Amino acid sequence: MKVFAAILRIILGVGLVLGLSSCSNRSEMLELQNYVQAEMDRPPSAIDPLPVFVVYEAFTYSAANLRGPFDIPVEISDEFRNQQAREVKPDESRPKEYLESFAIGNLIMVGVIKRAGEVWALIRDETNNINRVTVGNYMGRNHGRISAISDTQIDVVEIVPIGDGGWLERPQSILLQE
User: Fold this and answer.
1) Domain 98-175 of CATH type 2.60.40.420
2) Could you tell me if 92 and 174 are in contact, meaning their C-beta atoms sit under 8 angstroms apart?
3) What is the CA radius of gyration of the chain?
4) CA nearest 109: which of 101, 118, 99, 95?
C-alpha cells in the first residue's frame, strides 16, 4: 500500500510539472527575459534634483475682533452708539464655555431636545462634535449669549466691539439644518 501511494505521488508530481510547463509560452518568456536584460544593460540616467520648497511664513491675523466681511452691517446713530457703548460690556471675568472657541458662523443647529419643560438645542461644531446648549449658554467668539431656542432656530445676542473702545449688542440667529 505504501509503494502504491509513493508511485501515485510521483505520477501526480510529474503530471503537475508537465501540465504547468505546457501552459507557458516559450517565446513570451524569451521576450520577457530579453526586455529585462536590455533594461539591466542600459546605462544609468541622472536623477532629477529635488524641487525647491517655499519656506512657510507665519501670519498673525490681527482683525479677529472686527466685524466679519460676510456679516450684515448694523446701522445705528452716533448718539445711540455712544449711549449703548457705555452700557454694554462683555463679562471678561466669567469662565469661557467650549463653544466660544468657534466662530458662530461655523456652528450648526442640528436638533432640539425638550425634557421636563426644559429646551436644549443640539449644535454641531467644526470638529463634528454635537454639543447641548440651553438659554443662557454662550457660543461664538463675540461673547454670544443664547437668548431663545425654538424648534427651528437659536437666537443669540453677541457683544461686538465698535472700534472706539465701546461695545454693541448684535442679534444673530442659527437656523436648523436638516
Assistant:
1) no
2) no
3) 37
4) 99
pLDDT digits (tens, 9 = 90+) for 113-133: 998 889 999 999 999 999 999
pTM summary value: 0.53
Provide the Cα torsion 104, 153, 130, 139; round to 10°. 30
pLDDT digits (tens, 9 = 90+) for 84-117: 556 778 888 889 999 999 998 889 999 999 988 8
Is 174:108 a contact under the CB 8 Å cutoff?
yes
Q: How far apart are CA 178 and CA 171, in angstroms?
A: 23
Q: Could you tell me the residue ranges of all domains in the chain?
A: 2-41, 98-175
Q: Give SS3 for 40.
A: helix
